[in-house]
Amino acid sequence: MSIRLPAEWEPQDGILIAWPHAATDWAETLDEVLPVYLQLAEAVSDREKLLIVTPDPDSVRRQLDNAGITRNTIRLARAATNDTWCRDFGPLTIYRGEQPQLLDFGFNAWGLKFAADLDNQVSRRLHHQGCFGAVGLVTDGLILEGGSIESDGRGTLLTTSRCLLSANRNPQLSREQLQARLCSRFGATRILWLEHGLLAGDDTDAHIDTLARFAPEDVILHVACDDQRDEHYAELQAMAAELAALRTAAGRPYRLLPLPWPRPICRNGRRLPATYANYLVINGAVLVPTYNDPADQAAQDIIGAAHPGRDVIGIEARPLIAQGGSLHCLTMHLPKGVLP
């Protein structure tokens, strides 16, 4: 039976998010970040289902009600969480033939950087509660975050060696062994590895979803830097050269769309990994992080053009980037057939 990891722009049942609370790293900035979550919840629930995991569903329901977000497309599930980065601890969905199957990989907080004991159990707890109906869930001991791989839906994966080969993830596996495991799990026929690309302040060791994203019609959107004074210049120029050398499965160059570079955002003297590449595709729309920056509109225009026929919705992400992530990092898409 054929196995396939669908592209994110394929039809979805919904989006999974974890609501911020006082026991997460958002504790000191809840007042700033909750409006972003409410805006995200409204945009998603207008177009598809939204599954919210939280240790306190009653509190979240009151917050949604107070904001006038009362759609029946929103579902709440109770589970304890360390943090809110669902892209990396949520389930990845493959299709076996036409049937979806959930894969629950190990999550160790980006190479043992933070606590992850609760987040690592979320997918299994949601499955046990029946949130995914009759769809099966397979637990896999491989350490793998959803933000570390991109799929074109046709057998090609894009990733970075800096992340997947980091010493605290799967040190027992060589590149060749890891590639074989990924191809087996996802039905991939090839993996494109980037050796360059990194954002200052990034805790993920260069997740691909902060750097380069597949889009329909053999497009890759990627962050770019043309300012020679910027600390990212050499690394992102080298990444751009790598992307230009890549070929599709048919042997053609990809169509590359450089994304603009927001002005540096710093917190406590540390530069934060602000990137427009961390956008979220949902049914009928694409949600683009904005940073109150002159480049915001250009980024929305480019991303919208790469995903034609979808509304483009900017969501203020400065409160999110304070913790090192953005829209894609916060969310896990649930493809068609996953939610009852």
Automatic annotation (TrEMBL):
<dbReference type="GO" id="GO:0047632">
    <property type="term" value="F:agmatine deiminase activity"/>
</dbReference>
<dbReference type="Pfam" id="PF04371">
    <property type="entry name" value="PAD_porph"/>
</dbReference>
<dbReference type="GO" id="GO:0009446">
    <property type="term" value="P:putrescine biosynthetic process"/>
</dbReference>
<protein>
    <submittedName>
        <fullName>Agmatine deiminase</fullName>
    </submittedName>
</protein>
<keyword id="KW-0378">Hydrolase</keyword>
<dbReference type="InterPro" id="IPR007466">
    <property type="entry name" value="Peptidyl-Arg-deiminase_porph"/>
</dbReference>
<dbReference type="GO" id="GO:0004668">
    <property type="term" value="F:protein-arginine deiminase activity"/>
</dbReference>
